[in-house]
Amino acid sequence: MAIFSTLDKQTEVDFRIYNEKKPNRNTPFNLPEDIQKKIVILMESVGLITGSLDLILTNKNEFVFLEINHAGQFGMVSFPCNYYLEEVIAKELIGFDYNHN
Questions:
Q1: Cα gap 84→78, rounded to integer Å
Q2: What is the mean pLDDT of the chain?
Q3: Strands 25-27, 2-4: parallel, antiparallel or unpaired by DSSP?
Q4: What does residue 86 show for φ and ψ, rounded to 5 degrees?
């Protein structure tokens, strides 16, 4: 999910300083394939199979890695973007066959 927070003085440094009157726009976002591959390499190198990653996209269109939260929560991403991650995880845990529903 992309959070457009830098154009608001209240949230430009930290989106968690919420502006209730003018909430930031949150939208689904796909990272470029090369960044996805680098994330897989990073996760493998630190021994994590899951986590929440924070990145910033600069004005020069460069991705800057901030952190991995190894116990990251996904609800704040799943709900606004309609990802239904909790459903995907539940189906994975019970061995749901996506090809045969």
A1: 5
A2: 90
A3: antiparallel
A4: -65, -35
